[in-house]
Design goal:
Layout: E1 2-4, H1 17-28, H2 38-48, H3 74-79, H4 85-95, E2 107-109, E3 121-127, H5 131-136, H6 150-164, E4 168-174, H7 177-187, E5 190-196, E6 213-219, E7 223-235, E8 238-251, E9 257-264, H8 272-287, E10 301-306, H9 314-320, E11 326-328, E12 345-349, E13 352-356, E14 359-364, E15 368-374, H10 379-382, E16 399-405
Helix pairs in contact: 4-6, 8-9
């Protein structure tokens, strides 16, 4: 089910007329899809459709029992055929034999939970780096081309997921959803939801695998799906190229309900006002959910995303000051509990080195407790060439938190 959420203008979000004209031209311009494969042709209609009509996006939930995507390569399919996560992790490590050691990160237990919960909700937030962007557009000048090959990165991505085994995984820049992530994670017991960007920059890369987008996976043995929606974010009443997936889940063991959203806001300097408008649009959507979900104070929210915004930006302040009473889980790593990490992404491009905090896990502080947070690798672990690398498949680090319901 696709839900289009129209934006409503608000004081402080207006942009100059020439900026709105630029945004309109950007939003309504058709995407260029040179030399695309089958997935590119599959999504080409959504890339050229008018924003005045509903987007022909795929349904948010795909049948976990459907046959593998025809483009799934036989070697990878054979290598990841085991339904046992431990065996699958061993197979990934075997396929990556000889690479530099992976980052050893520690799960930091927090003292505000009165002991570890018996069944925490582990949530992962991760921009995995779209394959077409990593190889074609992003320009990681210190990363060897071999480290960016999909034949290697798909094992590293799967290894990261299998190492931490989240109950809910919120991913951005997913452009290998139908042929890799959906069939493999479905086989591991995850329900899979995906919303592609209407005009993904991946489509501008020759030989791409289709558009990138946001994906949300949840463990079917842990949760029952109550509702799911793909949301196209708007700014100043204009639909933009950024999206979100919003799901409402019921815990099978406790019967408690939680609403989880994943998003990816506009990148680049100079678009701060647009990120603020997109964030406000998402907050309005979450506030407008029916009483049985996020509008009920007993139903907590978890919002994961690559916000492309440092903590001093307006969109961050809007989330922190929202009536939804959200807090950022990774502040728990700081000594005073009020500061974000020094970085969640660290890369070197032709324009220079970028070390920033852009990724967040927001949660309802009145209804949820943070029991543990995965720490971040040190500068020494990351290495002088930064990210991505032979050790790590993305320029963004995964964030992992354990949550429990407050009584």
């Amino acid at each position: 089910m696709l839900q289009l959420n129209p934006a409503v203008t608000r004081p402080g979000l207006e942009a100059p007329a020439h900026v709105l004209n630029d945004l309109s031209a950007h939003v309504f311009a058709p995407a260029v899809c040179p030399m695309g494969g089958g997935a590119t042709r599959l999504y080409s209609s959504s890339s050229s459709s008018s924003s005045a009509s509903p987007l022909p996006l795929p349904p948010p939930h795909l049948d976990p029992h459907q046959p593998p995507h025809p483009n799934l390569d036989p070697d990878f399919c054979k290598a990841v055929c085991s339904p046992d996560p431990a065996e699958l992790l061993r197979q990934c490590e075997e396929a990556l034999r000889g690479r530099p050691p992976r980052f050893h990160r520690k799960l930091v237990r927090l003292g505000d939970g009165g002991g570890a919960p018996s069944s925490p909700i582990r949530v992962m937030q991760w921009n995995i780096l779209a394959q077409a962007l990593g190889e074609g557009l992003d320009g990681f000048v210190r990363c060897p081309p071999e480290a960016l090959s999909w034949s290697r990165r798909k094992y590293l991505i799967l290894e990261e997921l299998l190492t931490y085994r989240p109950a809910v995984a919120c991913l951005q820049e997913v452009d290998h959803f139908p042929d890799t992530l959906q069939p493999v994670l479905s086989g591991l017991g995850y329900a899979c939801h995906f919303c592609p960007k209407p005009w993904s920059p991946c489509l501008d890369v020759e030989g791409n695998n289709g558009p990138d987008g946001c994906a949300l996976f949840f463990d079917r043995s842990r949760f029952e799906l109550l509702d799911s929606a793909n949301v196209r974010l708007s700014a100043m009443r204009i639909p933009t190229n950024q999206v979100a997936v919003v799901t409402t889940l019921r815990c099978r063991s406790s019967g408690r309900v939680v609403c989880v959203a994943v998003t990816h806001l506009k990148a680049r300097s100079g678009w701060e006002w647009l990120r603020s408008a997109q964030g406000s649009d998402l907050l309005r959507h979450l506030q407008s959910l029916p009483p049985k979900t996020a509008a009920d104070p007993d139903v907590p929210l978890i919002v994961c995303g690559d916000f492309n915004a440092v903590p001093t930006e307006e969109v961050y302040r809007r989330f922190a000051a929202s009536p939804l009473r959200l807090d950022s889980a990774y502040k728990k790593l700081s000594s005073d509990g009020s500061s974000e990490p020094d970085y969640t992404t660290w890369k070197i491009r032709p324009t220079g080195e970028c070390r920033s905090t852009l990724d967040y896990i927001w949660y309802s502080r009145d209804s949820l407790r943070v029991d543990a947070v995965l720490d971040l690798p040190t500068e020494e672990q990351i290495g002088p060439n930064r990210l991505p690398s032979f050790s790590y498949p993305s320029d963004h680090l995964s964030l992992v938190c354990d949550f429990s319901f407050k009584d």
